[in-house]
Amino acid sequence: MADLLQEIEAQITGAKVTAARQNVGVIREVGDGVARVEGLSDAMLNEMLDLGHGVTGLALDLDETEVGVVVLGDYTKLQEGDEVRTTGKLLEVPVGKGLLGRVVNMLGEPVDGKGPVQSDIAYPVEKMAPGIIRRQPVTQPVQTGIMAIDAMIPIGRGQRQLIIGDRSTGKTTICVDTIISQARLNKAAEAAGDKNYRPLYCIYVAVGQKQARIARTIAVRALLDCLWPTAT
Amino acid sequence: MQSNKQLRREAKQLFRFCLVKGMLDEVRVIEAVRKVLEANRRGHLALLAHFRRLVKLERVRHTAEVESAASLPAALQARVLSNVEHLYGPGISTSFVLNPALIGGMRIQVGSDVYDGSVRAGLESLQKSF
Q1: What is the Rg, in whole angstroms, of the alpha carbon atoms belonging to chain A?
Q2: Do B126 and A42 touch (CB under 8 A)?
Q3: What is the predicted ipTM?
Q4: Both ends of chain B: CA-CA distance in Å?
Q5: CB-closest option in A17, A19, A64 to B115
Q6: C or N terminus of chain A, fewer CB within 10 Å?
Q7: How far is residue B104's CA from residue B18's CA, in Å, rounded to a whole number?
Q8: Helix, strand or coil for residue A93?
Q9: How far is B93 from chain A (nearest CA, A)?
Q10: Single pTM value for the model
């Protein structure tokens, strides 16, 4: 109890009450995940904005008299007249091995109910990719586990591959099978103690997918006992 | 039929016409509104709605609202007024409002800029730091 009181006193002593300048705006219109905010004269492009009610937004459209904000959260909590503040930060998400085996949303916040994500580093979402000269050549394969692909059109590590097709033709299944196959290889290499093996960490990014589908994918992964963690 | 974009462009042109040396001329604003109403063109009400919004935003940009938990003495009010004019130039209209919810201190808002030195803001930032 004494430690707790000391902690509180230290916080109060350290708290500086200065009237620093803040930039605010007012929501003029909100709907369909987009808010139009009047004011915010100092808003920067891709800056994170505090929309109140625990909701964050991204300034994407800088107009002369207002700012177009994409709401990264539940926009139904917002109302016309709500105050919006700038944060001075670009959109960034936590990165690191603490995300392995976790399910997170677009802001890197966990949605799997397993507690906060352990990460000390945050990277900006909009980041310049390294140039071609700096990149390593593609020398190692990605084992999809599907013989037709691995034999005839192998995919390499560091390569991009497009899977195109009509709906319900098995595009996501190929990706999930690849994740499962790589997880088994990682597990086997760890069990054998192979120090030369570089594990491949798989990250499944679901854009515009239904929540039921995401839940099914996660359940399949867990059901097949992928002990090697996969960040999703 | 004029699109919303065209009406907004015209409202902006009308607004620029009403600016004299960077400041809004009220006489020109009233004259502009009267002429648009007289012309009675299609979409004139939507045009005036956009124009009204621009005028409102311009007024807010040149208005300072000073909120305090208790009424301020005249000397302090004069000092606040002169500091605001020093930062934002002459032509700022200032209003003093009582807001007991601040608990103590002062909150000054000029356009989109807010200087919050109130006790309530301090408590909120303390709460966030925990």
Answers
A1: 23
A2: no
A3: 0.75
A4: 57
A5: A19
A6: N
A7: 40
A8: strand
A9: 18
A10: 0.70
